Predict the structure.
Amino acid sequence: MNKHPENTTKRIFIGAFIRNTEFIENVNKLKREFSPYVKAKWTKPENFHITAHFYGNATFPEIMQIKVALSEILNKPIRHKIILHGLGVFYKKQKPYILYVKPENNEDILSRSISYIQKQLYDNKLIQTLPESYTPHITLARIKHTEENFDVLLNRYKEFNFGEISTIKYEIIESILTPSGPIYKPLQL
């Protein structure tokens, strides 16, 4: 019996989990402080990650092609100091909808590695177009509604240091949608 039927799809993205105790503790403090001023769906600590590319639904043969195309970066962690610094917001229709932390690095290693991943996918005809722009980020919450003092609190954390990491390990990650929120797990291939 075939373990991976050809027509079965999985919802996937290429990303790197953030497993850092200081970061999680700082986010928990932030969540308590923000709670009176924002109604949001907060990311579970085990789901903190940086997305390099959201692929969407992929069949097993496509996943194997992705694994081959990205083998160099998937098999070799990037050892570099990355500071989890500053709070930001993505807006949709002039309303805040994603609260995030900005990972930063002097050599712009994240942007370069993400561009490499996207170019490899494009060059191997696994995606049709290269994304125009991308801001590396770690999603903390999906915002539903904000109160009046939200912006004041946001400005207080614009330069806050949430911690740092020394290694980024990109993986093919499955995103399983459930009523209680998404479950992200690395694909074992």
Notes: The mean pLDDT is 92. DSSP finds five helices and nine strands in the chain.
